[in-house]
Fold this protein.
Amino acid sequence: MALVRRLLPLLLLATGARGELDDATLAEELSADEECLAGGGFEGECSLNMLQQRLRPRAAEVRAPQESVAMTQIAAEAEAGEGSASLQCGAALCAADSICCQSRDINAALCCAPFSVCYFSAYNYEAGVRILNQLGLGSPRCYACNEKEDGCKNRQGGSKYYGPLPPGTKDVEGLPPVAEIPQ
């Protein structure tokens, strides 16, 4: 009992539990504890169980996190088919006017701004280099659209989100042939 009287206040203080610890309450709660009775007395194994008993009411006070109103509204619109507020891009939720840059070969997606272009960066292990492509292979990237570099013709960049690659898509050196790319 002496060990419990010494340890329990420290444990209660460390966890932020409230309440006075008088002898009568402590003895009553410990004597009602099956584990303490089975152990043959009020030794160290009782202190942790006693702490758990005292903290149980506090645990019930912890509230579940509240969903944000905006996310609830977006989810409701998507469920109702009014998807004008957003689009689901892999695991990401993007603004409706975004470009969904979703990889075809790895589980990765990125929301690009509507004025940007989607590219992918695939690693060629044989050559030891990364290859930028618009086949949907590798990790997604968003780049500023640059008319000078001819980068605005295919803003969707071969993203899986928009379906199969268009017929006539050319192979890229160092990457698998288009016919072997998962659609």
In short: The chain has a mean pLDDT of 76. The radius of gyration is 30 Å. The first strand starts at residue 86 and ends at 89. Residues 44-61 form the longest helix (18 residues).
